[in-house]
Amino acid sequence: MFEIQFASLGEFFSMGNYAFNVWSVYALFALFFVINIYFPLVRRKQILKEQKRRLLLNAEAEESRTGSS
Amino acid sequence: MWTWFHQLGSPKWFYELTGRWLPWLVAAMSLLLLVGIVWALLFVPPDYQQGNTIRIMYIHVPFASISLAFFPLMAIAGTVTLVWKIKLADMIAKTAAPLGAWFTALALASGSIWGSDIWGTWWIWDGRLTSMLLQLFLLIGVISLRSALEDTDAAAKACAVLSIVGCINVFVIKYSVDWWNTLHQPASPITTSGEGPNGPEIWVPLVIMIFAIYLFFAVALILSTRNEILQRERRAQWVQDLVRTA
Amino acid sequence: MKPQRKKRLGIILFIAAGLSVAVGLTLFALSQNIDLFYTPTQVAQGEVNPGQRIRIGGMVKEGSVLSAQDSLRVEFAATDYAHDVPIHYEGILPDLFREGQGVVVEGSINSAGVFQASRVLAKHDENYMSPEVKAALDASGASSANHQLQPES
Questions:
Q1: What span, in angstroms and rounded, lies between the C-alpha atoms of C75 and B242?
Q2: By the CB < 8 Å criterion, does B153 face chain C?
Q3: What are the domain boundaries of chain A?
């Protein structure tokens, strides 16, 4: 059950002539994984930055209003 | 009596709870993924007929089986939205739809690459493949329905109804291989003891991969739902406090 | 009614109409025969007309495969262990095509009762195992050819 099924690295990469099928599926999986974990994290940073800016703008507007009166 | 239920549905509560859970979920997911992928690629014996293409199963089957969970999940969230008007339920439903489309697309793509050499075709309009493609279109329908309706409440209600109706297709996908002649094979029965087809050397790593990808599903859903909470609750005091310290 | 609400109602009605059409078509399709293929027994019972483009599914009969030396022509019989259909094909066979394995062929039956296939697809069963396990099973005689394509009784 715990025996490595390939004699050499070359054999591992060639996957018994199914290199394209096996590796493209695992590559798709890797791509998919990155998209669905990485993008939400990037989006989160964007949202926080945007909302911080808006809060600062609001605070400034408030200050200038009270300052001028 | 229902206060606990509404408290459970508070976005703030969900945000804080998942904030505590995330590190553990990510750790468990990474560990299971690492073990599962190494096992699937190196230790699973090649199939007597299909050779090394059996390794595609360890991506295809988890994704295909979890894709079937999206419509029931969205239907439950939709029912909660319609009956109790809990905002959190609709946020989860909203983030689940694009994620479900990704899962369904990957199940279709991996199956297609698998079949291209083994079956001799990339695609065939049999019951299983066609109903799975229909699920992808239904999910795209839910996503576009939400973006077409500007009013958040109306969008939530319309998507909830479509999700509940879409559940019918899940049964069609599941039983398509039993109801009709298909090119796709039926589900494999597992063998727990002794020598036989589908023995533990084949299904144990598959179970690990299924758990790993379920955790991946949870992590991805939580990440997007937290973003949705930050956006929709941006006027709430706790979000503004959080933004200021970020 | 406010124009905003009118627009919203329009969108919902449009989607509801689209949805009912989709559900209707699905139900219509369900009531039709959506089987991918006919079995050799159905062919033997005369459910298929000569010249009609159909698919036939069965097992490649053991010992029936004859391939030409100089071309890609191949002849074999598809069986469901009750009836056989002779099949002629010229072209590339899928990797999983072998005797005793499932197969789905696309084409039509000629007047002589021979199925002229334009495409051959392999049908895999749900059993996965290593060559060692398969050899052990064969040695113990536990597994004969699998009978998943047997006609319904």
A1: 73
A2: no
A3: 9-68
Task: Provide the pLDDT for residue A25.
Answer: 94
Please give the ipTM for the structure prediction: 0.87
In a domain, B15, yes or no: no
Number of domain units in chain B: 1
pTM (predicted TM-score): 0.84
Q: Would residue B146 count as lying in a domain?
A: yes
Of B57, B118, B182, the CB nearest to C94: B118
Amino acid letter, residue A31: L
| No. of helices (H) and no. of strands (E), chain A | 2, 0
Chain segment C52-85, per-residue pLDDT in tens: 888 888 899 888 888 888 888 899 999 888 888 9
pLDDT of residue B47: 87
Q: Domains in chain C, ordered, with CATH?
A: 40-140 (2.40.50.140)
Best probe of the A interface among B41, B91, B238, by most A CBs < 10 A, is B41
Nearest to A5 among B45, B113, B216 (CB): B45
Q: What residue of B is the nearest CA neighbor of A34?
A: B220
Contact call for residues A22 and B56 (beta carbons, < 8 A):
yes
Taking the CA of residue C86 and the nearest CA in chain B, the distance in Å comes to: 20
Q: Are strands C54-60 and C66-67 parallel, antiparallel or unpaired?
A: unpaired
